[in-house]
Amino acid sequence: MSEGTKAVKEVKSFLEKNKPDLVITDVPKEALKMFKDFANSDEFACEGNKGGHYGFALKFLLDSYFGRIPNGVQELQEEVSLLQDRIAEVDNQKEETNVIKLCNGAEMKIGG
Description:
Elements: H1 3-17, H2 29-39, H3 54-65, H4 72-97, E1 99-101, E2 107-109
Antiparallel strand pairs: 1-2
Helix pairs in contact: 2-3
């Protein structure tokens, strides 16, 4: 076997062992640029790596699309508002249950 053939086989073997799990083709240039900029943002950076976490960026986008996380600031604000209302309800119920009526008709506040 010639040295060139051997080198080609070694390269093919290396590429087979190290090929990526996912390859996406036919992505419009502008969309690819937007995705890379998004994935390279500080949001996906971690210690020792300044962004470039395409897997995390893709997962975030899929979670957003399929509703696992709310889309946009408006939905988050609505969720926060609903949670604040529920907390206020619980606090009001808590205050009501902290008052007991004694046998003589007097009310006694417990706690708070």
